[in-house]
Specification:
This protein is mainly alpha-helical. The protein has a single domain (3-72), classed as Orthogonal Bundle (Arc Repressor Mutant, subunit A), CATH 1.10.10.10. Helix content is 51%, strand content 5%. Strands 1-2 form a two-stranded antiparallel ribbon. The longest helix has 21 residues, at 52-72.
């Protein structure tokens, strides 16, 4: 699974922040909840529009972005 299939950037949704396709949930939201100690099961329970693949795509997106930033520095 490629993150590009699940993450979109639409200037009209959440100010153009990367979001889970078909939702207004941003990658940042997912990462922040995970970093705050929420489990994957809790996220899926609290956000029924999310799927496990969306969480994994968010992590893959963040990793890809970090690789791009690191390669420029």
């Amino acid at each position: 699974m490629e993150w590009e299939q699940r993450i979109i950037v639409n200037p009209g949704v959440r100010s153009g922040k990367p979001c889970i396709k078909g939702t207004r949930i941003t990658v940042y939201d997912v990462l922040e909840y995970l970093a705050g100690g929420m489990t994957e099961a809790q996220l899926l329970s609290d956000f029924p529009d999310l799927a496990t693949e969306d969480i994994r795509a968010s992590l893959a997106f963040a990793a890809a972005r970090e690789r791009r930033v690191s390669s420029v520095a």
